[in-house]
Amino acid sequence: MDEKLQLVSILNTYYSITEPKINKLEGYISTNFKIEAKGKINILKVYDNSAEILELITAENKILLALKDENIHCSEIIANNSGDYNLIIGDYIYRLLTFVSGTFLAESKHTATLMESFGKTLAEIDHSLFKLSIAAIKAKEIQWDLQHFQKNWKYLPDIPDVSDRSLVDYFCLQFNEHILPLKYEFRQSIIHNDANDWNVLVQNDAIKGIIDFGDMCYSWLINELAIALTYVMMDKENPLEIAIQIIKAYHTKLPLHEKEVDALYYLIATRLCTSVLNSAHSKKIKPESSYITISEKSAWSLLRKWVTINPIKAKNTFRGACGFSKLQSNNLKAQLARRNKNISPAQSLSYKEPIQMSGGAFQYMYDTEGNTFLDAYNNIIQVGHCHPKVVRAGQQTLAKLNTNTRYIYEELLTYTDKLLSKFPSHLNKVFLVNSGSAASDLALRIAKTHTKKNKVMVLQHGYHGNTQNAIDISHYKYNHNGGTGKKQDVIETEMPKIFGSSLETEQEITQLYVTLTNERIQSNKGNIAAFIAEPIVGCGGQVPLPKTYLKSIYPEIRKQGGLCISDEVQVGFGRLGEYFWGYEMYDVIPDIVILGKPIGNGHPMAAVVTTEEISNSFNNGMEFFSSFGGNPVSCAIGNAVLEVLEEEELPKKALHVGEFLKQELKFLQKQHKELADIRGEGLFLGVEILDSDGHPGTNLASIIKNELRSKFILISTDGPYDNVLKIKPPLFFSKENASQLVNEIDEVLKKTKKINTFKINKENT
To answer: Would you say the pTM of this structure is higher than 0.90?
Structure first.
């Protein structure tokens, strides 16, 4: 029999409804039909007949009847001609419910009055349900119940975009860290569990009713509010603001606990993740269905915005709605006093106004006051703050094994295989240590042992670490305040800088510096153990070397028996975009490569990579051993970093975003001559600042850095005159982030010029 004819027969026989007009609606657990007859509208729900489903809908019937007794407007169950609320015919169960008229909340203007009504209605429902205890509901476990969020994690691979997948996984991690430890402290109750904006009806700027109790469950009470807030926040410029009236009204009717309110930030993220995970899975198995995916675009938009909101800001906003006091941050003055008591002033702080940090996510950092900072200069956190894959790699391995390289373990072998695959085949030996400084120190030892020479050639303004040996070869340190000057066995050569040269062409400039360097090589012929250089001189002001400079110098160093060392501590691991290693952009291959900073995404690890021949010469009886270098935890983390770089194609992102940022800065340069030079590769850029007289703009660079800090953007300054803006963000940095940075630099410069013009005018009056 035709489906509609069968339904007509059932409605006529069991409900005395004649000549019905039937329209099929999409459903999740049930198949739903809109029934119109004699001026009345009802909803017929059809379920597969099973003992489990029958038990659940019978429980739902009890709840709807209880809410009716409380005069709470929701769908009412209509008894069939036998007086039963469930009709079982063959393989199906039928239920008839009244149709709640009104406009969907999704299609209504979200006024303050309506939001207050929404919060009050939710509280009334939850207050009524709180009294009920129904075994079938308590036993029910569904993946849409936020306390069972982990049931959805199996759908992570179904999210096609790997960066989106990492964002969801980040909040999975936060759920484990911030919610699960409190699970026994949250109040539990039967809740509606799906007060989304398509299940809420509105009339005359007030809630008319709530429908679809199919996802009802026994869960944490606070989940009810979290789910409702999630959907009204979607597509809002300021999502926190819309939440205040709802929370306030709910709290007035059904008081919340502080721990419940503090959990809302993470539970809202949990609902968003549940939604996008199920949407991704639904599209994979049932691509033609739009029911599950109806809110997908808005959910993704809010999730991406949510990570930019400091959890402390959200918590304090929600607390304020309930009349609770704000979370107390540590007193900055007191913390500075403690720091000064315990920490040497030789260890400096960033910014005139120091920042108390509380957390981070990808390219964002959170302070204790609720502010979110865009991190535009942390090149250590290569694959983003708290990347879940990196975090889990460390957690899981630390829980299993941590030892040293005197034992055999898979993590060491897996990591070294993967790391060395990134190098030419003859660079096939690696030493693992704990910092770039230790790596520089070790590289010098290896070079001197292999060559049996003692002198090291360095570039002026270069920096290679904080051990004594590394300081001795770091012109940036030994030639500046507190430095003791150049050691006898150190040979300096000028940093080849194209910008500011009086020569006309790059070829002429390159030849000048090649000539100067070769003269120093010849004057020390036979005594140079190594020439060490950064592919882009970071502390020298983000200065790229001329394209053919190293190609001219490396052969000369090798002719006299020395080795060529590339210090990739700042620029390696895909930061330069087109090049995974900095030396690749100069078409040379060094003898030794130093790795650090981004290698562990903040975890203390580093490496020295060299050839078998050089490695063998270092094996001279004096064993090299690093207590922590190459431990299983470090190796697991390092491997995770490499996997993230590959899977999420972050070097490609660095290339495209870096090119965009460079172009935007060069466009800005046309408006502000103070931006004298824009240089660098990928997401390792420098902006040289000059004053109006063409002198190093040290003061202006400091003003820009600190003004950007007040606008919650983090950058640094460096160079011989500290007049170069250093831009080297986590590789999650987006074009939107780049535009924000450029726009704010523009605003700072306009403001500075306006102030200076005012001062000049005032002096002239």
So the answer is: yes
